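Consider the tokenized backbone below.
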């Protein structure tokens, strides 16, 4: 019920972008950002073959930092995220709330049951084409390339969706956003924009490598022989090391850039690392498929065929495409590690 109410409220607050542009009371800075969205939206349809519908042709000012908050949970000695199942969307590894207090209350219930939990703000999400998704104040001020990336990602979710397979869905959207931004930058990017986006993706790549390293250590720990007490002690050591290494990277490689500090605002837990692979594991396979099918409509049709397959057969088929090892994609808006663009 809270999800229905939240979605209906969102829709009621959205107005066509052209109305905002014609309104003399709207500040010029916002109008400039909305004009940029129109440019990105046209590129998405004309150059990337993404749906040319009414999504991202309206704008809503939510007057809050995030459109909703996701709760992710995992057992104390496992990195396997808890799944929640819903009509239409199927089973996903998060639960979203439009009210932060409600998200935190649910997180408290899960912690009382012994789960590791993370609550993260979400600037955007996709309704998979069931509704006309609006541009939101939660991400309208992103730099141009990041704004384009987010729009491409969300529209990709409307192209193909496999029920109960978040890895497939998110990795596909990440592959589309990566290629989309590369082509968009070729056409519209200047030297400054390319430098900013290069720095942005470089930091994300560093951060994914950091998380992947410590995630692997946790997997080894949980699979090892030994008591639960010993594994919990080792778990605490790994998370302490992660925090210390982050501080070193931030100081020595990022010149003090603090965009990821918010990720550490809650005590680190398995939930923080449980969904990292969801957004990256299959990206190389999708990019390899795109090289085989460089025409976007044919690529999307191939992906839709995959989405209709049995899950295990689908992943086996993707593995056959090959591709290079996973790298960090710019798929997490607002410098959050969990890809909250849904």
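A designed sequence for it:
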């Amino acid at each position: 019920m809270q999800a229905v109410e939240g979605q209906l409220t969102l829709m009621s607050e959205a107005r066509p972008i052209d109305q905002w542009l014609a309104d003399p009371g709207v500040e010029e800075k916002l109008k400039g950002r909305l004009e940029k969205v129109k440019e990105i939206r046209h590129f998405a349809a004309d150059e990337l073959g993404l749906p040319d519908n009414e999504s991202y042709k309206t704008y809503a000012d939510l007057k809050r930092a995030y459109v909703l908050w996701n709760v992710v949970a995992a057992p104390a000695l496992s990195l396997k995220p808890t799944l929640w199942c819903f009509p239409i969307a199927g089973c996903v590894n998060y639960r979203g709330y439009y009210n932060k207090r409600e998200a935190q209350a649910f997180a408290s219930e899960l912690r009382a049951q012994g789960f590791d939990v993370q609550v993260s703000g979400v600037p955007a999400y996709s309704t998979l084409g069931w509704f006309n998704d609006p541009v939101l104040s939660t991400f309208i001020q992103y730099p141009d390339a990041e704004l384009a990336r987010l729009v491409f990602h969300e529209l990709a979710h409307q192209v193909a969706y496999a029920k109960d397979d978040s890895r497939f869905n998110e990795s596909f959207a990440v592959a589309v956003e990566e290629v989309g931004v590369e082509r968009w930058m070729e056409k519209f990017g200047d030297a400054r924009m390319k430098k900013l986006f290069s720095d942005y993706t470089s930091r994300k790549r560093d951060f994914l490598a950091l998380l992947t390293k410590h995630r692997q250590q946790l997997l080894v720990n949980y699979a090892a022989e030994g008591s639960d007490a010993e594994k919990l002690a080792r778990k605490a050591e790994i998370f302490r090391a992660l925090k210390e290494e982050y501080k070193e990277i931030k100081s020595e490689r990022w010149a003090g850039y603090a965009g990821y500090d918010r990720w550490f605002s809650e005590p680190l837990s398995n939930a923080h690392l449980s969904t990292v692979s969801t957004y990256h594991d299959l990206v190389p396979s999708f990019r390899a498929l795109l090289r085989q099918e460089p025409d976007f409509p044919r690529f999307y049709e191939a992906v839709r065929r995959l989405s209709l397959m049995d899950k295990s057969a689908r992943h086996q088929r993707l593995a056959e495409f090959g591709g290079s090892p996973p790298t960090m994609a710019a798929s997490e808006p607002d410098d959050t590690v969990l890809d909250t663009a849904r």
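Strands lie at 15-16, 58-60, 68-74, 84-86, 90-92, 95-97, 116-122, 135-136.
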